[in-house]
Specification:
The protein has about 400 residues and is mainly α. It contains 17 helices and five strands. The longest helix is centred in the N-terminal third of the chain and has 38 residues.
Length: about 400
């Protein structure tokens, strides 16, 4: 420090002047204040979480519901592993208690909380214990059709806790079967057929597909899935576009897993029709373009072996991206992103479980000069234009072929 260094006549010596001493003291005080503030914040945060957990013991439903709202928010926006890892069993039991006792809102929040707790724990023995306790209660709700508004969160929770906690195929198949009963309710003599609303069925299809992605292909016997694919084909004729799109992804997964034994030609024809569905006057056009794009992608994959590629930017600062290259991983990404909601980026950056599920890389374009980025962007736009032009021609050819078949 030049300011505190002085020269004497007889010799040279290094020493601090008063300004330096005050500066050091001030710096240490400031550092101490920052550490104190950090410790205080952690202590306050933990105390706040303890209070929310205590509120889950309350007899009053609104008190429990209020606590669940804040706990779900905390799971989404913070790393709660240090807080929950030593009390996972207690917290899980309280969440399940809210599912048993609570009205619709409380039950739905508790389902989300259980899934988020399991995802935070990252699999292993703790997630297995969560699944063992939660799965019977969740399946019991599915057998009670009196309140369909509970079912979407229940099927999502079943899928997630089974994926993270099941240690054998039996538990996974039990979860798959429970969810499938929502997709295809039982019918027959002395059986009351339940008509589930489209959003309920869509949630079940997405959960079922997510669960199916985790079964090793060598365990999948195509003969066991004939009835499932037949029913999925029937649902492709649904009037609800969101249902057709969910079914489309499930069918793409079945193609990828090589589960088709028969009906292949029929399903491909359905995919082709939906990929070029015309916009009719007076018809609902919501998500029409998204449907066309999805089924064109499926058709290209089935007929031409087209690649399924997608990247998600995780960190602009580090240039981190999440890379997708199969229908299996795309379905997993869509399900997890939808379940985590605003907490997706936080978990993608800090939760080791995400690194186990997905492949991460670095976007090399981020470090390029602006001039090179601009050139690359122009080239990408040109390629996109050519690709869209090609797709339009293919769609027109398919449409003309469709009309020719009708005429003859």
């Amino acid at each position: 420090m030049a300011k505190g260094y002085k020269k004497n006549k007889g010799h040279q010596c290094d020493h601090f002047d008063m300004d330096d001493t005050e500066s050091i003291i001030s710096s240490r005080t400031a550092m101490s204040d920052v550490m104190s503030d950090s410790i205080t914040e952690d202590f306050t945060f933990d105390n706040s979480l303890d209070k929310l957990v205590d509120d889950l013991y309350a007899k009053r439903g609104l008190t429990r519901e209020g606590a669940l709202v804040k706990l779900v928010d905390a799971f989404e926006s913070s790393n709660l592993l240090p807080f929950v890892e030593d009390r996972c069993s207690t917290i899980s039991h309280l969440f399940i208690n809210s599912i048993k006792k609570g009205m619709t809102n409380e039950s739905n929040l508790a389902c989300r909380a259980i899934g988020l707790l399991s995802f935070t724990m990252g699999g292993g023995s703790s997630s297995h214990e969560i699944m063992e306790e939660a799965l019977p209660q969740l399946c019991k709700i599915l057998s009670d059709e009196s309140d369909q508004s509970k079912i979407p969160e229940v099927v999502k929770c079943i899928a997630l806790v089974a994926v993270l906690g099941a240690d054998d195929l039996d538990k996974t198949e039990m979860a798959l079967e429970a969810i499938w009963k929502v997709i295809q309710p039982k019918s027959g003599y002395n059986v009351t057929t339940v008509n589930y609303k489209p959003p309920v069925v869509v949630a079940a299809i997405n959960a079922w597909s997510f669960l199916l992605t985790t079964i090793s292909t060598w365990r999948l016997n195509p003969e066991n899935w004939i009835m499932h694919i037949s029913h999925l084909s029937t649902l492709l004729e649904s009037d609800d576009r969101s249902m057709r799109m969910a079914v489309g992804e499930a069918i793409a997964l079945c193609f990828e897993l090589k589960l088709f034994v028969n009906m292949k030609a029929k399903v491909i024809a359905q995919i082709e029709t939906l990929s070029c569905e015309a916009s009719r006057k007076g018809a609902n056009k919501k998500n029409l373009n998204e449907q066309r794009e999805l089924f064109r992608k499926i058709w290209d994959y089935v007929m031409n072996g087209g690649n399924v590629e997608e990247t998600v930017k995780i960190s602009s600062k580090k240039g981190t991206i999440l890379c997708i290259s199969s229908w299996t991983k795309l379905i997993q990404l869509n399900f997890i992103r939808h379940f985590l909601r605003k907490g997706f980026l936080h978990h993608a950056q800090d939760n080791p479980l995400m690194r186990e599920i997905f492949t991460f890389g670095v976007d090399k374009k981020e470090n390029l000069p602006k001039r090179v980025k601009k050139i690359n962007r122009s080239e990408s736009e040109k390629k996109l234009y050519m690709m869209m032009k090609k797709e339009r021609k293919v769609a027109e050819a398919r449409k003309q072929s469709f009309f020719n078949d009708l005429m003859y």
